[in-house]
């Protein structure tokens, strides 16, 4: 079974073909990031217009790279939420149209669930991708860490899960992006913070670990603590404009703050993951979402867990359609098709 995946929830327009829920045949990602960098974040209208420009060529390339024509494709999976309204519309309307004219079943994919399913890809003929040798075992504890979500979910089987906890305020990726802004580091903040942190001391500053009951997270307090720390370092008060802080911080101070923030953000996740591991004894623990690319987080989790931590190749951690096509393969086994004449976008869809 070969599924074409289409993803357009944020600034990446992506298409991919996955066979039988584990084999990646093609993976095309076009990003409009370059157009957003000057604004310090994704501009929804610019992202949507860019999706319109490239969505068909990207799909065409994905089919070509997989050596497939439409006769070879058994179904189309598309992200219908969560995400930016205009961006989601382009992908969903494209997928609906293609499903109708090529007479293919359509599968509605939840973006966040898709991130988890990137972990089920175990083989590819594409160059430059490191794949795990085996698929994760159930029960599977999924640690979802992205720009829009921070969640812990326990899967007892494919598509059967229970949400254990989630962030009460900012997502972890959002915290990386906001701290990068305070430090004057370029967008997106995750990779910039990680790069600066390599030259800093993670123990230079003691930042607070949020105390939240159960399996929920909080990252807004940590972000504010970084702001106060930066203000204290240059000796200014709370009313000093945050966008001017970075001009007065030295390179060494920025690196130390980045390293200390990253260390604490990762530790926040590790604390909850270990509690869930001890309570539920899962057969596997998988990382999912853009922040799964973070090496400090991977290292801290690996050092604490008694079983190997699973995570996708870095290229499959951030937004892509390979994960959507993979999820589509499992949706197809459950025969949960969407109506190509009706599928609506759900910008606020949750797990
Ligand atoms: O999953 P994703 O591509 O988009 C959403 O669904 O939100 O995640 C994007 C987030 C951004 O906040 C970005 O700063 C973060 O992932 N990110 C990272 C790294 N690479 C991307 N955060 C920490 N370390 C990284 N290496
Ligand atoms: Zn994402």
Verbal overview:
This protein folds into two domains: 2-131 and 314-333, Nucleotidyltransferase, domain 5 (2-Layer Sandwich), CATH 3.30.420.40; 140-310, Nucleotidyltransferase, domain 5, CATH 3.30.420. 41% of the residues lie in helices and 19% in strands. By secondary structure, the protein is of the alpha/beta class. The strands form two sheets. It has a six-stranded mixed β-sheet with strand order 5-4-1-2-3-6, with helices on both faces. The chain is globular, with a radius of gyration of 20 Å. The protein is built from twelve helices and eleven strands. The two termini are 26 Å apart. The mean pLDDT is 96. It has helices spanning 33-36, 44-65, 85-101, 111-117, 172-182, 189-197, 220-233, 245-248, 251-280, 295-304, 314-317, 322-333, and strands at residues 2-7, 12-19, 23-31, 75-81, 106-110, 123-124, 140-145, 150-157, 160-166, 284-288, 309-310. 5'-O-[(R)-(carboxyoxy)(hydroxy)phosphoryl]adenosine (KG4) is lined by residues 10, 115, 146-148, 173, 176-177, 188-191, 194, 289-291, 293-294, 318-319.
